Amino acid sequence: MVEEIYVSQPLTIQRIMELLEQHPDLVKIKCPPSLYARTSSRYLGALENLGVVVEPEKRRGRPAKYGDEEVKKIDELLSQGKTPREIARLTGIPLKSVYPLIQKNLSPGRPRKYDAETVDRVKKLRKSGKSAREISEQLLIPLRSVYFLLNR
Fold it and tell me: What does the alpha-carbon distance between residue 143 and residue 145 come to, in Å, rounded to a whole number?
């Protein structure tokens, strides 16, 4: 008859007895990992003595709509500097689906206007004795931004 079944209810003594009566040829019981962790080791040992293996089954439920190929393509476009909206337009994947796929690669907030090299140049000029106004005029950066970069 049935040699393998999937169980989503806790394995109690009563439930195990029901399963064994309903399926005398039972060899394997699969269950969610959370249920497996809560099952008594005594029950698992007793089932093993009867020749029934209980193992957790991973990835049950709705399968992922977008696979590794799509994620790689999205990562590639993201590394090229494309925005999520552009990625959605180029790949044909809805914008609401693009965001979860790239969430781990996105840095939160707005991108910085001045890179680390500019910040270092501002700080070096300040150490060399230049005033904030002179730095602003030399690097064509607003005075307020120079003060902000010096405090960063």
Answer: 5
d(CA 89, CA 97): 12
Measuring CA to CA, which residue among 104, 67, 74 is closest to residue 91?
74
Rounded CA gap, 83 and 79, in Å? Answer: 10
Claim to verify: residue 45 and residue 26 sit in the same structural domain: yes
Other beta carbons within 10 Å of 19 = 18
Identify whether residues 75 and 51 lie together within a single domain.
no
pLDDT digits (tens, 9 = 90+) for 109-141: 777 889 999 999 999 999 999 999 999 999 999
Euclidean distance between CA atoms 91 and 70, whole angstroms: 8
Residues of the domain holding 77: 68-105
